[in-house]
Fold:
Amino acid sequence: MSSPQNSSHLQVALLGRPNVGKSTLFNILTRSRRALVRNEPGVTRDIQVEPAEWWGKKFDVLDMGGVTESSEGFSPLIKEQVESVLEYVDLIVVVMDAKAGLVPEDREIFRMAKESSKPFLLVVNKVDRFQDRDLVLSEFYEFGLEPLACSFEQSVGVDQIVEWVNAHVSEGEHTQRQGLRLSVVGKPNAGKSSLCNRLLGSPRMLVSDQAGTTVDSIESSFEYGGRSYVLVDTAGLRRPSKRKEGVEFISAVMSHKAIDHSELVLLLVDGTEGPSVQDARIVEYCLEHHKAVILVVNKTDLGEESIPAFRQSLRRQIEQQFHFFVDIPVVFTSAKTGQGLKDLFEMIETVRQKLYIRIPTSQLNKFFVDVIRQAPAPVWGTRNVKFYYLTQTKQVPPSFIAFANHPQGVTPAYRRFLANRIGEQWDLKGIPLRIFVMKSGRG
Structure:
């Protein structure tokens, strides 16, 4: 198993039962809203990892799932996951709840922290009245440590936590996540977390047969074939009509945010079910936001066993469902067996090269002159639109600016025509190219 995060500085894990305030502390320490915070036990199911910097010192903070002794739902998976990750962290902040008091599960959590042999700090959250401090802390002294009274909602005690962490943090530069950012999206149970686990080689993300396991989007750095990647496993995107109030609604928002901050989206589809209207909407969202997409057909091993002419049948379904994006790249894989993994990375690298292509302006303009001669010029009012030259911007995916005398006359259809011809000329099919038109000083 690899460490949860490739970095050169310490990792601080937040450990505790559900709803004790770990995610609130995570957001304070990282100055973010990455962790979901709701008055609902068990919202954090996966591991959030984010960098933090306080008083000139840097460290990673891990917000982990709430540990319980329940044998129902995700609880056993969460506990197993947390125990495995504790092996790789450097410091542990054990969070307990003053309002709930000391409960048997707190003793199990304290045991986990102690047996990890890592330095840990015991904090008791929700001590909202200073005058009640001694009373509410009294029962937590059974652990033989001096607990730190905190109220994360009021930011009380946070400075002391940071002081404790900084005492263990050595000076050093933070290693930023580097590499192509890949977002993994798709409907629940398509196999997203299983694919991520296959890529990462570790159980960083929960895998179960229950829909909706992944709530937040989880980032992990990894290498494959000598190249660096940042992998984002997102919550399953359901149709809005099936989205429950609460966790699933926030999950969809965070999935869209993950897409917005990625360079390449891997849309995972269950090959035994085929693509759906919701998958098509995800692709539409990606294209609207100018994100490159690879359609990853998962469970190919099962499909080939049970469905005659599986691949041909799937391709027909893909053509029908994604009729608006006929060039969408497709890869057949199996997260369970690793089938198609090499093909997937070959496709990723092909798309990467296309995303970062730089076309000399001289080549663009020679091409541009030839193309605009082949189609009737757009008309603005009673005048033909005259183009002067075309140049590429520094944006990713590739974007281009065409200068003309009347930009208002260049219709979306004509922009698509230009984008399609550029895609054909430089083998950029499957990449959402953008064409901007600006007024030239000549016109």
